[in-house]
Amino acid sequence: MAEPGSSSVAKTAPKAKPRLEPVGRRLVDLPWWLFGIVVIIVWAGYIILTRPKYQEAFLWISGANNGVLAVLKAGIAITIGTSIVAYSIAIVLGLITGLGRMSRNVFVSNVARMYIEVVRGIPMLVLIFFIAFVGVPAGIDLLHALGEWLSSIGLSGLGNLFIGLENQAVPMLARAIIALAVTYGAFLAEVFRAGIQSIGRGQMEAARSLGMSLGQAMRHIILPQAIRNVLPALGNDFVSMVKDSSLVSVLAVRDMTQIARLYAGSTFRFREAYVTLAVLYLTITVVLSLAVAAYERRLRRHE
Amino acid sequence: MNDEAIIVVKDLFKRFGKVEALNGVSLEVDRGQVVVIIGPSGSGKSTLLRCINYLEAPTSGEVWVEGKRLTTDQRQLNAVRAEIGLVFQLFNLFPHLTALENVALAQRVVRRRSREEAERVARQQLEHVGIPEKADAYPAQLSGGQQQRVAIARSLAMNPKIMLFDEPTSALDPEMIKEVLDVMLALAAEGMTMLVVSHEMGFVRAAADEMIFLDEGKIVEQTTPQELFTNPKEERTKLFLSQILQH
Lengths: 303, 247
Hints:
The complex is a heterodimer of chains A (303) and B (247).
Chain A: H1 2-15, H2 22-29, H3 32-50, H4 52-62, H5 76-101, H6 106-120, H7 124-152, H8 156-163, H9 172-197, H10 201-209, H11 214-244, H12 256-267, H13 270-301
Helix pairs in contact in A: 3-4, 3-13, 4-12, 4-13, 5-6, 5-9, 6-9, 7-8, 7-9, 9-11, 10-11, 11-13, 12-13
Chain B: E1 5-16, E2 19-30, E3 34-38, H1 45-52, E4 60-65, E5 68-69, H2 74-83, E6 84-87, H3 99-109, H4 115-128, H5 144-156, E7 162-166, H6 174-189, E8 193-197, H7 201-207, E9 210-215, E10 218-223, H8 225-230, H9 235-245
Parallel strand pairs in B: 3-8, 3-9, 6-7, 7-8
Antiparallel strand pairs in B: 1-2, 1-4, 4-5, 9-10
Helix pairs in contact in B: 3-4, 3-5, 4-5, 5-6
């Protein structure tokens, strides 16, 4: 209720003193940082277009060197595709964990809390190694054991399916996605928790006093408002994940970073490779950030 | 049948940490009766209402609604709460839904009515509280008085047997109090069983069958409005009445 009033105050405030340094004020308020970044990107684009060594580095790293279809298998496509798939899983994981963290069931809330704290306490790079080389093999062992148990109780069809699963059959890309999803699931759990806690107690009380169950109140009343509140935060975290996805290059996944490393290593064109790589990430993240900011502005306007 | 007590509260205690909000409250509300609770702030009025639909679980004591004792069984509580409307001081409308959706949602989710049926009832109830033209407005676009009337419509749409009002006008600007009280008076006239926490003397005079004066978590006096105002028995009651009736 306070928002409409306060936002109209904020809108009228600048109008109150229009005579004060109109041109100077406007110049100072311009987003110079954005102009700076655009200049860097345009400058880099000019270099890539005009210098063959940079052009080659760009084609390699973006994944376009082997023709149009090859783009889908490496470079930008892997970076963005990995991020989208991992983030989708992380959202589900985060929502479940965030709800679990607030559960009145002591066991559930402690498991959720432990997951969050474990992920927070391990560097992301180490966690990626751990999940790829310890977590996934352990999971496969567990499935084998489950398969043998299933076979022993007569479900040999399903059991053999699990037993036949080889550790090597899980590609590094899948491990990288699991690692990113597990890491971000813990971050997003806290985002969702904060979003749910930002909804006043009265909302839950009103829903419950109408006879809704806890689950119905969550689904129809609390979550729609909470998710709307955290959408900008979710957008910003997606931008972070696009950047953090560069860490999966340590698993030899052919994302932009890995290809840049391979290219630099084989041609000794380190400068070309890493200038191009940095500018590519910058372009992607700036575009995404601007989209998130525009969306956030639109949300505010409708409040 | 008509004289049977619809709410029975026996020896209710509620403790928040070290604070004793309710200190052994017992009362009965008959079908069709309008009972108004008054008392100083912190006397446990809101807690008493919120214990009756178990929004707060009492520390000890019994609550009986329509002859059934409430337990902490969630399924039973959900069913009972659907029969008891609760109107809050701060309205607590759902801000992401229009007025119509606010009134229709619980009917669909809890009463399992179809969308058409729920919206038909919702329009009827918005008409009932006098703002059918605001069906498509969001709560932020409504005045306080209009919001509270939507909140009342939201409760009424569930066809409750009892309505609880927790200081429904104390967050409203003076010019909006009347429109909410008018709706409440109409409800009382229709024979709704009501338990109202309010210091609106206009409403008390026009509608209250019985008054309860609550102080420090205990019922100090329970009698007719006539009796309470003209002949209060307890010193505390006199003192409190002199304070609220001064203006």
